[in-house]
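User: Please predict the structure of the protein below. I'd like the answer in structure-token form so I can feed it into my own downstream comparison script.

Assistant: Understood. Taking the following sequence of 542 residues as input:
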Amino acid sequence: MDMSQYRDLFVSESRNHLATFNELIVQLEDNVSDRTIVDEMFRHAHSLKGMAASMHYDAVATLAHRMEDLLGRVRGNEFEFCPALADILLEGSDLLSGMVSAIENGEGRQPDAAGLIERLVSFTPGSSKGARTPEPPPVGAGSEATAGDASRASHQFRNSDSFKSVRVKTETLDQLVNITGELITTRHRLMDRVRGYAAPALDEPLQQLSALLRELRDEVFKARMLPFAVVAERFPRLVRDLARAQGKNVSLRIEGKEIELDRGILEEITEPLVHILRNAVDHGLEDPEARAAAGKPTGGVVTVTVARDKDHVIITVADDGCGMDPARLARKAVEKGIITASQAHDISRQAALMLVCAPGFSTAAEVSDISGRGVGMDVVRTAVHVLGGTLAIESRAGQGSRFILRLPITVSIIHALLVECGNLTLAFPVNTVSRTIELRRSDIFEEAGRKVFTLEGRNIPLKSLNRLLDQPLPRGAASIVPAVVSEAGGDMAGLATDRFLGQEEIFVKPLGIPLSRMKNLTGGAITGSGSIVFVVDASTLI
């Protein structure tokens, strides 16, 4: 019987078993007396062994069998669960994951498991033949098993309470979004054409078409939605291995794993979250001795919280570590030439904390595999802003830090504010606009060599969008200056432009080279009138 037709199903199911297996190991380390976790781990190893054997993947079946045997010895009270046992089981899980990837890619040769199998068979607590101490996983490790499996697992997660499971290819979901976006653009074009004619008979069918397209858009978005759990399943293992490598005791708590986001956003935000978690373990949390000296529990806690706020999702990563000193951050930024001494003197607390996102900024005394190269948080900020989100940082010395990511639910089809700027039509995602304002010339004055205006008792810098984008200025001195007010990283600014064109639902597509190299633009779209608009990254302009 030809079993190749079931290969994709085997790969998907195997990765689900391995992901849960890894998570259970980390849970068990926090509660070694919970025998039900050992029983569940045993069942996952047993299921994987059986699946592999039925598919004649003998190498996978043999390794899973030996891991199952080792867990059976724990269930039989031969010895207690211990860190060395966790290490060797995680090593086995990693090797199994590599074997599954080889099967998925059609590779005929499997990774060699003979040495590990021997150590599994002869394992005893404290034995020199136990597992190796894990190295900190590199940034990006495991991404194939999260983002890559996201589309395959989408309906499995969302329909886990039903009797049927439907698997949809990533390409199919992407094509549905493309078709829906093009239909929305065509609707706008049709309505634009109709405005030029007196055709009241078309009003009702056009309204019905609009309603149906909104319903189609919502259903397509639902099909692309995935729970945060899809990417969060790798985080406990990541934090566990980093903490072990540094001799720290760290617990990871994840709340709101059931909250759903668009698959595309999950794929883009995974690595930024990995950067934040690595920084939390490396920079944020003290070693057990330092925590004890500060009157804290020797074990640190990192908490990832996901919450829904209307059409946004807020992801917060918090730690109870040493926190950050804004004054020290400012001094480091001066040393590295990121800001001047006078700027450091006048910098606000929030702006000082955001200095950790400056390219090349690092407070690490030594360069290591984990940090100290001055990369990481700038990558996080860029990724968040490209998605149309915002990043905020809160921190108190001795109490810990919080990194707050506010992200849209989806980024393909968005509501945007359209403005005219020189020869360009620009689109601001409405979730990045604090407000719009029309300023009189008398409302604008100079402060510290820059133009500002007063908004709700606060002096706000005013920047020319035309100059920032190298566009011609409007002819003559207009009595009214339209401005888009936006906020990024705690800083607020008004972006003066030529005129407002109104709001429209647009289908955003990525820009090709060379436009994709422009840091101020994140995408493009076609309006109902057929004109091209560019989506602006307001954060880079601010």
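That's the full token string. The CA atoms of residues 99 and 423 lie 55 Å apart.
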